[in-house]
Amino acid sequence: ESSGGAEAPISHPGRLLGQNRKFLDFFWDVAKPDQETRLAATEGLIRYLQENQKDDDVLKYTLKRLIDGLAATREASRPGFSLALAQVLQVFEEIPLLSVLEQIKEKHNLSRIKKKLFRNALFGNFFGVLALFQSGRLAKDTKALLGCVQLLQGLSEHHAHLKDLPRKSLADIVSEIPEGMFEEVLFSALEDDLTSAFSTPGQLYLLLVGIQKFPGVLHPEKLKELLGTEAVITTENIPKLVEVLKMAVKSEKKDRTLPSVGLDLMKVALKEGSFELFWKDVVENGLLKDNIGPYSYMCYRLLGSALPLLSLRQLKMILRGEVMRHYGTHVVCTQLPDRFKFAPEMEAYVSSFLEGCPNAEKQLAVMVGFSTLTNQGNPVVPSFWRVVRHLLPTALLKYIGWLKDMFLNPDLDSCVDFATKRQKQNEKPRQVETSEHSITRLRKWIIARLAGIVENPQIKREEEFVVDVTRFCFFHAFFETKKPASEIPETEAVPSVLLNEPSRSAAASSFFSVLQHLSSMPALGDSAKAEEMRKKHLHGLTASGDPWIYVIVQYANILLSHPKHVKVVMPFSNEARAAWDRMLQTVEDLRKKEKKNPALKTSAFQHLLLLVGIHLFKSPAECMDLLNDLQNCAKRAFGETPKKKKVAAGGEEEPEWVEVTVEVLLSLLAQSSGLIRKVCRSVFGLITQHMTKGALQLILDVFDPQQDQNEESAIMVVEETHKQKISRNNERGDGASEESSESSGEDDSEDDDSDAEAENGKTDSDDEKDEEMDENFRHQLMNVLQAGNALGGDDSDEDVDDETMMSLDENLSALFAEQQKRIQAKKDEREKLRKEKILRRDFRIKVLDLVEVFLTKQAENPLVFDIIDPLLTVIEKSMSSDASKQEQDYLRKAADIFTNHLCRSKHYCKNVAPIQEELHAHLESLVKRACRQSDSSVALYCFSASLYIFRVLRGNLAGEAAPQSEELEKKPKNKRKSAQTPPASVVGSLDLERVTTAYRDALNLFLTKRNSPLTGSMFLDLFERHPIMCKQLIDTVAKSITGGARQHQQAQACMLLQKALQTRQFRLSISDEEWEELIRESTNQVTETLKMVSEFKVKADQEKVLKCLELMNFLLRTVTQQKLNVDLTDLRGVLQELSQHEGFGNSSRLGNVYWNVMTLLGFTRPAKEKVSAQPKNPTEAEPVKRKKKGFLPASKKRSNRKKVPEQPQENGAESGSKEADADGTEAVPAKKRRKRKNKRKRGGGGGESQNQAPKQQGSVAKKPKLPPGSAKKTDSKLGNLKKKKKKEKKGRKPVHIDGN
């Protein structure tokens, strides 16, 4: 019964279409491209069918709609219908699959379908089979299963449209059925496909799936019958397999994925025990040999996919094969940004393998295999490879051990080394030089790899191996082993190849990078003390509570105490060793003091001493003086306070200890080290509370432009960094891309060659010198030629002898060589000056860190006011200088510190009574400085600084002013009339009159000068942040509404007045009489300035009128709400005239604001009328219609019966024109006129033209009467014409007669 019901036609299809709109909407939603919408529609459809199970027509209609949708034209709709059909078949098991399959074949019959719908029918059959398979019931119905398989076999012939989709679906179906059903039902049907398995990728994939799924059916004897061989991977089948794999690559080239047939073929090779044959002959000698991109990428994907499937021996085999070498060449040669890079995909393969592999030996083998893939000694994987985070703890320790052993005993024979074609062509050195070069590159990568493991926060690091790696880097950077010592584990392994200078330099760089990371790393370990330190956010400490740098210094002291076993690479002098010992003693004394009495400066001196001490191994000569200064500072900082200051030998007083400390910090910042910069920042934060004016001045002197004249220190830095750059260039001469550590990469500003773009230009003096040099060279050349008789006249016909020519050549070559030297010297001098400028600016950027720290930690210190002018000077100079990237960074950082850490700081100095006079003078100078600027952006910074000092002088009165204002607001109106401005004593230390004078002068300058650097936003900020200034400046603002320099200034005055009037504190500060007088005066000022407007020619006119109207809107609302006595008679007349000026209607915003004001004055805005289809002025069109010159006579015209007669149309137009003349409006259709007539009966007013002058309410103009009967006739004729036009469905367009 169910079978018959499914195939029977729907009894009443019209009933379904009309009964439920929601049911039909499900099918529309199923076809939408959004996946969530499709899924929701499918769930709703299933739910609806379950609720209406008794209605067979609903289920039949659903099947019909879903089967029809399988061949939808939109590709996104087909999967939706297929999924919905699969769900319906899964839920309603009473529906037979065979009957549904027959419906699909019948609906999408390929033999009867039109040619243009053939492709859609193919997909309809395919998605129909897919729906049957996804229903999960196909394995239970053998007839339907066989029918689906046969249908897919037929569809596989249409490869142009379906590609390999039918074969893949067939393999998926085979993989889901039981072995018995495969043998009994499908084997006979699939035998031809299995026999021709080496023909297409789909047929081979079907065979491979069958071999893996049904080994009992497709056993070697059966394969012998099908293929002629008992195995798939054999020597005879290798060429066929290679061709099939190439076909699979071509078919899936755009997808950039590994073809399924390749992965299954590798699995079958592993199962048959012929993986080595497959890898050598199919992959390396087959696909890889052609050296074609897609084939190579398939080999790489096979390598990545094989990692989880192979044994340890097989892993080592493929990781040392040609595929790895080929992959390394690809990585090195695809450095350009537009080239396809396979490295991210390979990293994903390796990461997936390491994450899911529980075997530490296999993990280690893979890591070692990729670490030994080298390009002339340098591994191709990055030193900071993120896949390390998935290593097991044992595998990680073994990998670190392998790296250390490879560093000490580099084994190039164990590496899979390669060289690119360009490297082979360009470099042909001796074998010894090549080997040494490769070892250096390998050691650099290994030491960076060790540092990267320590710095990787995603790795679970133990304190033991962190200490081990740090000690390893430090030892091999600065020490050598004489003989092993049991106390020093690093001496037990001696390098087989001595470390050269580049290797030790790389080790030192990695060590300081690790030390920088350790200084900000949370405590390691699971102990309770470490957990407590992490909760307190204490960074840079070991689990025992000691700083990491202290642990390293202790280790260095152990090494120095064993001179028989180790020696320093850069030997210590007696003075350096004495400075080291004194440093250790001072640190121990400070640690004892810290335990008794913890203090910030104690920790600060410890950090500085340990930092400078560890740098003794890098540059002992410079650090010895710094250590001596720091030790003297420490003694003075923690010693007894002297009664009298000591006097130096020159007669000057010795500086404070904090000043010496600041000098040491500045000298350390001159070095290019991220670690030093970070430590200096943290140490300075610890001593900021001890800062003096002299110490701060040392920092601010760095930003003084006059300091640029002192070039001695800059030249020294340039020479040092130039040497470092030369050594770096020598190291990078091999052309490899090596990662630089954080400590060197963060601050090496000389490598920023982009900064030279704006600094390479020659000055006028340089051009003059070049001209003088060229002139001198020209004279010298003339003298040499004359001396050699080379410039003889016409009478000099004698030949010059050989000796004269030889001497002339020598003189010329010497002259040109000398000229070349002069040119090169000039270039070197310019380059030196450019580098000095870059280094000086880089140093200032670092010193800005100290300024930022001071402003953050000591915002309430009076010394903050000394920072304002230097920062403004930096901003001014940077704004007017070149636009190099470094200069922009410098400006951006200085402006950010000035704005966010100074002007907008939440904390400020509270006790300003002693410096009250200085602050007032400073505020006045800042306001005047803002007025003198040529750039508004710089003036804004000056003005913001003045507002900051204003806030400091005024004090924190927000809490006091609020209660006073509330009390004043609660007073009755009659008592509030006598309220006056609070006395000046309530504004803290502020001299209100003096400050008012400064800001009034600036305001007058802004409103009366045409090109002023000040802007309206500055004074808006003043009124908003300090409302007390509103009352002081309100008169000046009000007068400038008419007395402003130009329209722009008058508009800004209106905006400022509106802001002041809206300020609540200002309103509460004046009495009601003063308030009413101010509103009256403001209204008069706006009226007067509007009288001066005669036209709207430029944008400034519109801006002025717009601001005036916005202000007037507020004034009128205030007058209306508070019932103030203000005369508005003149204002009405001015506003009525304003709308008649030329250009008034060009701005819609202006019109809206204008009518808002007019509404408050009692006027009504005319309603906008919709433009009708009739001509705007029919009376003018009539003479044109009467003019018919040059047209055909009526007897020659083609008759058009559908055309409306012209006479009624003309009559209608005439009546419409009469009506328009009488009413002043255009003729409109009858329906609209009836609506308006009804509105007039209900009391609604008629519309007025927007261009007419507004009329007051209460004096509504009467509408002129029409001639009797004219309106009715016009309405009836227009109505008839409208009905006739509606009846015409497809007719000719009416001919418009033009008299021209």
Q: What would you note in describing this structure?
A:
This protein has 1300 residues and is mostly helical. Helix content is 65%, strand content 1%. The strands form two sheets. The chain has a three-stranded mixed β-sheet. The chain has a two-stranded antiparallel ribbon with strand order 4-5. Helix 30 (574-596) packs antiparallel against helix 31, helix 42 packs parallel to helix 46 and helix 51 packs antiparallel against helix 52. The two termini are 81 Å apart.
Describe the structure in brief.
The chain has about 1300 residues and is mainly alpha-helical. Helix 48 (about 1030-1045) runs antiparallel to helix 49 (about 1045-1060). The model is unreliable at about 1-10, about 640-645, about 710-765, about 795, about 960-985, about 1180-1185, about 1205-1230 and about 1245-1300 (pLDDT under 50).
- List the uncertain runs: 1-8, 640-645, 711-765, 793-797, 958-986, 1178-1185, 1203-1232, 1243-1300
Gross geometry: extended
Strand segment tally: 5
| Distance between the amino and carboxyl termini | 81 Å
Sketch the major β-sheet: 3 strands, mixed
Helix % is 55-70%
Cα Rg: 46 Å
Which keywords apply here?
1300 residues, mainly alpha, three-stranded mixed β-sheet, two-stranded antiparallel ribbon, 58 helices, 1% strand, disordered N terminus, disordered C terminus
Tell me the layout of helices and strands.
Blueprint: H1 2-7, H2 13-19, H3 21-30, H4 35-51, H5 56-69, H6 77-91, H7 97-107, H8 118-134, H9 142-155, H10 159-162, H11 165-176, H12 179-195, H13 201-213, H14 220-227, H15 238-251, H16 260-272, H17 275-287, H18 293-306, H19 312-319, H20 322-333, H21 343-356, H22 360-371, E1 373-375, E2 378-379, H23 393-408, E3 416-418, H24 421-426, H25 431-455, H26 463-478, E4 479-481, H27 501-518, H28 528-535, H29 548-560, E5 566-568, H30 574-596, H31 600-614, H32 620-638, H33 657-669, H34 674-687, H35 693-700, H36 712-731, H37 742-745, H38 764-787, H39 802-857, H40 865-880, H41 885-903, H42 916-932, H43 936-954, H44 958-970, H45 973-976, H46 992-1008, H47 1016-1025, H48 1028-1043, H49 1047-1061, H50 1064-1068, H51 1072-1091, H52 1099-1122, H53 1129-1138, H54 1148-1160, H55 1178-1186, H56 1206-1223, H57 1230-1242, H58 1270-1287
Parallel strand pairs: 1-3
Antiparallel strand pairs: 1-2, 4-5
